[in-house]
Each structure stands twice: as C-alpha cells, then as structure tokens.
Specification:
It is a single chain. By secondary structure, the chain is an alpha/beta fold. It has eight helices and ten strands. It folds into two domains: 1-122, no CATH class; 124-180, Arc Repressor Mutant, subunit A, CATH 1.10.10. 51% of the residues lie in helices and 18% in strands. The protein is globular and about 50 Å long.
Length: 180
C-alpha cells in the first residue's frame, strides 16, 4: 500500500508544504490508521512524502513513531519515500532521542538512499548497517551466507538479525532474511 502523505494532508485541509505540530501529526495518524485497516499481515506500507518539504519532531513523534510502533504489533512494514534532507535529519534526531529516553530503538527503511548514504534512518550499529546493505544487494540470504560475508560470529549475528527483525527493517522468511 502506498499512502500519498501530501494528498492525505490536503484531504484533511492541512496546509502544505510543511507538516508540523502534534495536532497535525495526530490528525494524519488517525487518517492513516483508518486506511491501514485493510492491509494484510506482512504487507509493506510506503509513506510517500513527495511535496512535503519539512516535517518537525512533534509531527514525527505523533505520526511516524506511532506507525512504527503499530507495525510491530499489527504485523506490517513501513517504508519512507521522498524524504527531504531536512526531514531526514529531523527523523534521525527523533529516533535517536526516542532510543535514548525510552530505551527502545526505532529505525525505518527508506526507498531511496539518504544523506547518510543509507537506505534507512535510525541508530543502527555498523554491523547492522552492513547487514542491511548486504540484504539490499542480495535480496535474500540465510544466516550462513550473511555470516560468511560479514565475518560476524554466528551467535552474535543471530542476535543482530533478530533485533533488525524486531525493528521491522528486515523480514524473516523461513530461515532466510530479506530487506523491506
């Protein structure tokens, strides 16, 4: 499912090109949750931010963070598209703050490479980042293949893959792993 965020904002009479404030985030979240009622388990939801220049930390907290937390419970994956450079910085800042204060990491996959030269936003460690890159290139791999590529101890790798799956930035498919 693709959700055109700018179109949804216009339908709610929210003035673009910026999406800011908690009330706007809450309105957008409610509208998006309504649309998500029809998705199937394991489906990927793409939030397309084309036409949106800036999203601030309050909006991110009320919209993106809540959708990520929902994805963990309702079994769907979230992916961002057309994120502006300033929005990427703001999302990363919110995710880092959230991770520090709530002791729960947040990360999200993006469709295009970002300013951070990664296809994700969030506080992943170097090995996790390498795993994400490997899966993006190879599309699917088992733990043995990833271990050979990365040189990471098998037991450490199992933990890293489990954490990435919990973060909903990779998929687990019958023992193999793939990118979102």
């Amino acid at each position: 499912m693709i959700i055109d965020v700018a179109k949804a904002a216009k339908e709610l009479k929210i003035k673009l090109p910026d999406l800011i404030t908690r009330p706007v985030g809450r309105m957008m979240y409610a509208a998006t949750v309504e649309k998500l009622s029809i998705i199937g388990a394991g489906e990927t939801v793409v939030l397309d931010f084309g036409g949106v220049k800036v999203i601030d930390s309050s909006f991110i907290d009320e919209y993106i963070v809540k959708l990520i937390l929902d994805s963990r419970v309702k079994d769907f994956y979230l992916k961002l598209r057309n994120i502006s450079p300033i929005s990427e910085i703001n999302i990363d800042s919110v995710f880092n703050s959230y991770s520090n204060y709530k002791e729960t990491r947040l990360a999200v996959v993006r469709e295009e490479i970002g300013k951070n030269n990664r296809f994700y936003i969030g506080p992943l460690v170097e090995h996790e980042s390498d795993i994400m890159d490997y899966l993006r290139i190879n599309l699917s791999a088992g733990i043995e293949d990833i271990s050979r590529f990365s040189g990471i101890d098998f037991n450490v790798l199992k933990t890293l893959l489990e954490e990435l799956a919990v973060l909903r930035v990779i998929r687990r498919n019958n023992g193999d792993f793939s990118p979102v």
